[in-house]
VDE lipocalin domain-containing protein
Amino acid sequence: MALEAPPPPPPIQSKTKFQLKRRFTASAAGFLRRDSQQRAAHFPSSPFSVQKTSYRTPSPILAAAVKERKAGAVTESESKPVRIVALVGQGTLSPLKGTPWEEVMLHTAKRLKWVDEGYEMLVFTDDICQSGNENAVNFMTELRRADILVIVSVTNQDSVNWIQTKSENVGNIICFDSSPNLSNKLGGSYIHKETKGNIFGKIFDTSQSKDSESVEVVQTVSQAWDRHNTDDIRFCLLVIINAYIRPVPILKNLRSKGLSTLSCMVKNCGPQILNCLLDPNCRKALQCLNQCSPVDQVCNYRCIASYESPNLEAFSLCVLQKNNCLGLDAKIPDKPYVPPMVKFQGKDLCHETAEDLFVGWLGSLNWSWRVVAGQNPAYDQFPCQYQLFYRGKARGSFWYEPVFQVRTLEGKMVWRRRKYRVKRSKIPGTFNFSVLDNGVISNEFWTVVDVPDDLSWGLFYYSGAARAAGQCYTGAVLVSPDGAYPNDMHKGRLAAALEKCGIKEWELYTVNNSSCLNPPLGIPEGSSLHSVIQVKNQTVISMVGLADA
């Protein structure tokens, strides 16, 4: 974007594009927050300070209500719409698989509605600046009442000049990948900058900045934008709304709890803290998390997966799950509503059949499904993902165990495995999942969106929350027996299934299934598989009761 705060030392990044707090994520990042004066630094998680270091990341807890000093400005009726106007360069392409920016921003407008129906974003292309037609009049009408103007990939000088003369009364202007001649404004104040090199080289002159909160807002938005995914594009806008328009409830966990957090940790979890700091892997995990932005879930979960250990789990279990020292909370998102499929092989879907669809190819193959792609980049960065679904020994029990590879931050390839308890929900094809992941419980709601009669592929949607970590998330996984993408014959059906989830195909992250040697598969002895569907010799025969039809 055209806004950048003075960059900190580069955080640890994954080599892929970038929510998995489908697993434990960002909260631990603050447990080891330090500064060069060895004093406790405020952070959304905690002010816990351990040792000297020369690096300290600015807290993106930013103006999570901007120290509440703007409380008077945000206490207006929250029923008033937040109006956003987006102006994108005509014909410009995004880094999201070359999708036009106009389409990306129109999709973002839809996704904003899932957070709050009062968020209204209209999208225009910059060719409107040279036209005098009705659309240009509509643009000016909307611009005059806009709370935020978002400018994306606008470099045409005529458009730039036109924007400069027409946008003076907009309180918040933010420019991404655009001309360096365009100015950025937050809370009614222009952000001073100087230009170095190309249009991506802008940096902030923080000495002239009105307040540090604006710099923190900018840094958080800059880092999120650079991850180039639809979750973070939406997050950028929510941060601006939260800081300068009105509070955004799902960002409430960005507020620091101060000394109460440290007191809770020391009072309740002293041994766990000490054991973690004495354990090289646990200590590395905290140090690694310390270098991640709390909202960069790719970075955070890669730290967890790289250095997970019993001491890290005990630390998180005590600080987060048992004592909630950070005072966090989160609820499973209820939007978008995704309906389950209703029929399989010509019959109404029942709970038993839906479970069998999860079990998939297990028995004929050594796994239920392999993940082809997903819409949750924090998890879909990991290669070689296998799904194991099976019925347990206990009556009515059902389990899910994902197995996946992680290239650790030290360059090693390791296998990881999780275990979810699965319970039927009210409607066939919907399920409640729960998992203890590195000391934090995640609860998720899964939906079987579509599976063809031949089990050639499947699409499963999920939404979840880790309350103790203050994280909520949504996502989807596209699966097949061999990890290969469905062929063109299924293109229309797959697009329709994704549309039910509010997902565009260009949002999916392809899982690397190219080198998956010796995965630690297998299920517990005494487990059972299919109840209704018959799968033999890698072929779906039929449902029981249909074989003779």
